Amino acid sequence: MCEYQTKHKGHLKKHLLRHKDISEVQMFKCEMCEYQTKHKEALKKHMLRHKDISDVQMYKCETCEYETNHKGNLKKHSLGHKDISEVQVYKCEMCEFQTKHKGYLKQHLLDHNDISEVQLFKCEMCEYQTKYGSDLKKHLLRHKHIS
User: Where does the record locate the signal sequence feature (predicted)?
Assistant: First the structure.
């Protein structure tokens, strides 16, 4: 299938959904709009969009004005205020790149791989393909605006 590895059973379960066709998995559907997803947590996150902001628990940064309704976003944001000596640093073994965010290193490492060595994210509506899932999401917005 692919070379994905993890120590966490839950992460593997979530990853395996990427390889399944939508018709093969349970979809979680929003009752207020057309949104649907393979991931229960993604639906929970989406449902916050339909709530009045006063009903949503907000997480506020102690250093600046930043606030979010996702605890994980605040944690990631807070790393930006910390000195690099105070946090774990993720370093690229192939160049000078370093970051406070493990996910950023993972994304960066794709830059060192030839396109033939990585999993590609392919658009189902045209020939577009990329090694970055986030780029495919942005690309799909183009098709939304065209139709």
Answer: none
